[in-house]
């Protein structure tokens, strides 16, 4: 799963963040060649011995019911603040973190600027880096008014330099 972390000195309290998250995850997924989400990729059935996520497990008769968390029907689900992505965003295969109001000095000034760090397991080469930096720079300019000349992106491929593993 690629992870993109963007820090900027722009205040993001009044900015609608969903388009930034959506466009950034779309750009990273399409340029690197990773799936954006897992819904379309679940074609295989689970074998009987595989584990299911905790939320999908049901209490078995042999399990004590007091050990399982009980839902309180009177409580409403917690509301999300403007900086939290909806629950559906947890299914995306690209993680995007956006931090605003971070003290940043770039070229000796505190004009709007951003620093991004993208970490991926494979799929990175010089052409991909250029496309990512251009695309992310355009997104930041559109939504946060950060000029591409005041945007720095550090791209890390965690598999770089490793010999390819044979597939079994």
TrEMBL record:
Domain of life: Eukaryota
Source organism of the structure: Carnegiea gigantea
GO annotation, cellular component aspect: extracellular space
Annotated PANTHER family: D-DOPACHROME DECARBOXYLASE, LS1-LIKE PROTEIN
InterPro entries noted in UniProt: Macrophage_inhib_fac, Tautomerase/MIF_sf
Signal peptide region: none
SUPFAM superfamilies (alphabetical): Tautomerase/MIF (SSF55331)
Recorded family membership: Belongs to the MIF family.
Gene3D superfamilies with a match to the protein in the record: Macrophage Migration Inhibitory Factor
Molecular function terms, GO-annotated: phenylpyruvate tautomerase activity
Designated name of the protein: Uncharacterized protein
The organism's taxonomic lineage, starting at the top: Eukaryota, Viridiplantae, Streptophyta, Embryophyta, Tracheophyta
Basic residues composition bias: residue spans: 36-47
Renumbered residue ranges of the record's region Disordered: 35-81
């Amino acid at each position: 799963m690629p992870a993109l972390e963007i820090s900027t000195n722009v205040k993001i309290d009044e900015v609608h963040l969903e388009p930034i998250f959506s466009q950034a995850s779309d750009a990273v997924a399409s340029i690197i060649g990773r799936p954006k989400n897992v819904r379309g990729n679940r074609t295989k059935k689970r074998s009987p011995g595989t584990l299911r996520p905790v939320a999908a497990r049901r209490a078995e008769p042999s399990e004590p019911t007091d050990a399982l968390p009980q839902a309180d029907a009177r409580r409403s689900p917690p509301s999300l603040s403007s900086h939290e992505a909806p629950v559906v965003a947890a299914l995306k295969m690209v993680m995007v973190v956006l931090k605003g109001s971070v003290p940043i000095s770039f070229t000796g000034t505190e004009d709007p600027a951003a620093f991004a760090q993208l970490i991926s397991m494979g799929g990175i080469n010089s052409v991909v880096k250029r496309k990512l930096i251009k695309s992310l720079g355009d997104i930041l300019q559109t939504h946060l008014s950060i000029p591409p000349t005041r945007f720095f992106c550090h791209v890390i491929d965690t598999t770089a330099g490793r010999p390819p593993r044979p597939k079994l």
